[in-house]
Amino acid sequence: MVLSTDGDSLEVKVIDDGIGLQKQPPRPNIDRKMHGEEDPRGMGMFLIQALVDEAEWVVGSPGSSSYVRLLIRLHKRDIDELAKTITLE
Questions:
Q1: Which stretches of sequence are listed as region Disordered (predicted)?
Q2: Edge-first strand listing for the sheet containing 66-73
Q3: What is the pTM assigned to this prediction?
Q4: Closest of 71, 83, 53 to residue 12, by C-alpha
Q5: N or C: which end of the chain has fewer CB within 10 A?
Q6: Which residues lie below 8 Å from residue 49, measured CB to CB, with a gap of 6+?
Q7: What distance lies between CA 52 and its chain's CA centroid?
Q8: Are the CB atoms for 42 and 25 separated by under 8 Å?
Q9: What is the pLDDT of residue 25?
Q10: pLDDT tens digits, residue range 23-66?
Q11: How does DSSP assign 13-68, residue by residue?
């Protein structure tokens, strides 16, 4: 996992050296899930996209890493609070 900020946004990149995703799963039908007509699992990527400003899934070629890049735009006070929680070793 790589975290970086440019002062206006926080970028989170999660790198996966496994087989990765072949394609992004379809958007879930929340009504069907809520009524028990579909498996309640399988909403992770949908929720991630709903909670961040940008989400990008990059599937690497065979033998290379895949990754997801998430971007969250920050307000000044968010940056100050974030700085308080990060410690560098």
A1: 18-38
A2: 2-5, 9-16, 66-73, 54-58
A3: 0.67
A4: 71
A5: C
A6: 55
A7: 7
A8: yes
A9: 72
A10: 677 788 889 988 999 888 888 888 888 999 999 988 877 777 88
A11: EEEE-SS--SSPPPPP-HHHHHTTSS-S---HHHHHHHHSSEEEEEPPPTTS-EEE
Residue with tokens 């410690």: 87
Query: By the 8 A CB rule, do 9 and 73 touch?
Result: yes
Tokens representing 75 are 């307000």
- For the record, the structure tokens of 32 come out as 């069907």
> What is the share, in percent, of the chain residues with pLDDT greater than 70?
81
- Is residue 14 pLDDT above 60, yes or no? yes
Phi (first) and psi of residue 21, to 5 degrees: -95, 140
* Amino acid found at 74: L
> Could you tell me the two tokens for 78?
């968010």
